[in-house]
Amino acid sequence: MEIMYQMLLAAISSGTPLLFATLGGILIERSGIIQLGAEGLMLMGAVTACLTFLQTGSLTVTLLAVCGISILLGGIHAFLSVSLQANQIVCGLAMTLFGAGLSAYLGKPVSGLPVPRAVPKLDMPWLEAVPFIGRIFAHLDLLTWFSFVLVVVLHLFIHRTSWGLHLRAMGDNPATADVMGIRVQACRYGYIIAGSILIGLAGADLLLVYSPTWTEGMTTGRGWIAVALIIFARWNPVRALFCAYFFGALDMLGFRIQLIGSDIPSYFLKMIPYIVTILVLMFLGWRNRNKPSGSPEALGVPYVREQRF
User: Fold this and answer.
1) Shortest CA distance to 104 belongs to which of 18, 214, 220?
2) 93 or 264, which is more confident?
3) CA atoms within 13 A on the CB side of 287
4) Do residues 199 and 21 lie in contact, with contact meaning Cβ atoms separated by under 8 Å?
5) Cα–Cα dist 218/43, whole Å
6) Given its phi and psi angles, is residue 217 left (phi above 0), alpha (psi -120 to 50 degrees) or beta?
7) CA 138 – CA 83 distance, rounded (Å)
8) Residue (of 219, 192, 191, 226) closest to 204 by Cα position
9) What is the pLDDT of residues 224-265, one digit of tens each?
10) How far apart are CA 219 and CA 224, in angstroms?
11) Which of 54, 77, 185, 286 is a good FRET partner for 140, with 20 to 30 A between their CA atoms?
12) C-alpha angle with apex 219: 215 to 225, nearest 5 degrees?
């Protein structure tokens, strides 16, 4: 039971950055824009959090700085994909390469420096009386609790509000949404920026909570796993919660196997989440080959007002 408890706690810690990034991607793709820049945004969020916290020592200022850089990068992405109608796949890859390169340059002075504990834990001792899960949820940090709240809020927003209906309409048929009076381009700008903020917070959580030391490329492909999790979750925030923690558990499984003295090389153990990602994608593609994918129907298609197709 103790080993199971430690595994679940580690899965939550490892999966929370994935959850933030997946929720941000769902918000962006629900509006009809492909999000492939998560890796670069996470890296920029992480390096900004590191630089800001080491300079100021303030968690509030650090999170505001992460939101600021995410708004800037999200605005650039929105300008390219919405205003200029550039290829959205190329735009996402460009954001990833740009974020990876710039974060590596900015992070050189602080590479390897330890970051002091920044995110406080929300201690609720009364939860410890609940069997098993009480110990897990009694001492989680504030960013993890914020991710739980965010899952509920986004689910209700997308499926239970008129604004969520407008969001789904933009992703499925932007021309019809335009006829309904929805300002498609302006709303897409807003959702891209909002989703970019969540992805930037994923990088901040990765550095401030999970691995409090900046190293170049510290996301190690988590942004790409988040892109896959959007598909696994079928663009649903609640499913994203379970998918993120499942892959968080796989990420920690390799470390646990090393701790018990396995002779399997660590390089192969680190491959476990990525191999499972590929296998699950293949399985879902085969199982749903004759079914609707669940993705927004106009995903990746630029919308030009009054253009005829």
Assistant:
1) 214
2) 93
3) 7
4) yes
5) 7
6) left
7) 46
8) 219
9) 999 989 988 889 999 999 989 988 888 777 767 766 666 677
10) 10
11) 54
12) 170
Residue 118's nearest CA partner among 42, 182, 209 is: 209
**Which of 39-53, 58-72, 257-271 is least confident?**
257-271
108-149 pLDDT, tens digit per residue, is: 999 888 888 878 888 887 777 777 777 788 888 899 999 999
Closest CA to 176 of 186, 166, 189: 166
Query: Position 146: which residue type?
Result: F
State residue 46's pLDDT score.
94
- Residues 6+ away with beta carbon under 8 Å from 113: 50, 54, 213, 214
Q: How many CB atoms lie within 10 A of CB 41?
A: 36
β-pair partners for 114: 213
